[in-house]
Amino acid sequence: MKQKTLVKALAALFVASAAGGAFAQKISDDVVRIGVLTDMSGTYSDLAGKGSVVAAEMAVADFSKNKTVLGKKIEIVSADHQNKADITANKAREWIDKDRVDVIVDLVTTSAALAAMEIAEQKNKITLVSGAASLDITRSKCTANNVHWVYDTYNLGKAREALVKGGKKTWFFVTADYTFGHNLERDTAAIVTANGGTVVGSVRHPFPGSDFSSFLLKAQSSGAQVIGLANAGQDTINSVKQAAEFGISQKQTIVPLLTFITDVHSLGLRAAQGLSVSESFYWDLNDQTRAWSRRFFDIHKRMPSMVHAGVYSSVMNYLKAVEATKSDDTATVMAHLKSKPIDDGLFKGNIRVDGKFDHDFHVFEVKKPAESKGPWDYYKLVATIPAKDASAPLDASCKLVKKS
């Protein structure tokens, strides 16, 4: 009897040991590696760049004081993709094949995001896009391994609907000549025409640009009520400055279609006052955004952009999914992310089948200098667009969406 009891005990111990070994294998390479692939030195380095690395590191530290998940180490790696698709693809491939990176985040610049998404899909890894905007990311280019976290060109165009309904009917676009700019012009133009407006023309400038004078003068000569800037980052900053220098903004409404608080900071309130901007995150929106943003500022010495907030949110929720599923398996983690509502204090919503993180969007007006109470106090909230209205409907051009 004692011998049988001993045998049973040893068998139970063996099963438990085997189960423990299997459990350990659910974290590949015994490390969870997160790659921040972003623009460290170019047009978008201020709104993304090193601040995105800070945001990712904050998420890891907030998730676990000893920087582990399920007892396994969490590592952050980062690189500059220089806003080039080929460099992005090569780095993504190297990270996944050689460095065993599990998830790539940020991916500012649409061409870079699409390149990384393609590699990640081929190699069955995850991309979490916070910095790129094209609606195509969740339509014709969608993948089962990707989440579009912060904003897209439909969100940005939808935020301009009220302008058209308010009487700003004629539009001319000054557009960055690459996928993002083309898509932003396309999606905003669709909103304009759907609400009774007219697009009287457009012109495309090289990306990145520096001298926008000839493009702005064409916009001025069009006589359009609104000049929509379908660009971002330093291109937007330079466009707004030069429009003011030429006196264009005194007679026509300049609307930067994608603006970040870092852009407003660079412009200064004297130059930026009165601009209508749309963002999904603002540091001074509520108590939770203020608390997190002040911690970010203590490290980075600048308030976070919505890209930085998106990187933090995406990394935090990825780690929570790994912990909840006890695995870093791509399909398992993605299924979990799409199955639960997200509410992390910075963003609140759900991830749809096409990979779009559906959440509210906000329209702000830039304050006059006299209205600002101090540094980074730049925005007045004009309107909040609910997620159901802010996001484009599901579309069958995404292979994940069933055709009706």
Features:
404 residues, alpha/beta, Rossmann fold, 6-stranded mixed beta sheet, 43% helix
Instruction: Count every helix, treating DSSP H or I runs of 4 or more residues as helices.
Output: 15
Mean pLDDT: 93
Q: For the largest beta sheet, what order do the strands appear in spatially?
A: 2-3-1-4-5-6
Q: Which radius of gyration do the C-alpha atoms yield?
A: 23 Å
Number of domains: 2
Query: Which topology of the largest domain does CATH recognise?
Result: Rossmann fold
Account of the 3D structure:
The strands form four sheets. A six-stranded mixed beta sheet has the order 2-3-1-4-5-6, sandwiched between helices. Strands 8-7-9-10 form a four-stranded parallel beta sheet, with helices on both faces. 43% of the residues lie in helices and 20% in strands. It has 404 residues and is of the alpha/beta class. A hairpin with a 4-residue loop joins β12 (342-343) and β13 (348-351). The model is unreliable at 1-25 (pLDDT under 50). The protein has two domains: 30-151 and 285-359, Rossmann fold (3-Layer(aba) Sandwich), CATH 3.40.50.2300; 155-281 and 361-388, Response regulator (Rossmann fold, 3-Layer(aba) Sandwich). The longest helix is centred in the N-terminal third of the chain and has 23 residues, at 2-24. α2 runs parallel beside α13.
Secondary structure topology:
Layout: H1 2-24, E1 31-38, H2 49-63, E2 68-69, E3 72-80, H3 85-97, E4 103-106, H4 110-122, E5 126-129, E6 146-148, H5 153-158, H6 161-165, E7 170-176, H7 179-194, E8 198-205, H8 213-222, E9 226-230, H9 234-245, E10 253-256, H10 261-267, H11 269-272, E11 276-279, H12 287-300, H13 306-325, H14 330-339, E12 342-343, E13 348-351, E14 357-359, E15 361-366, E16 379-385, H15 387-390
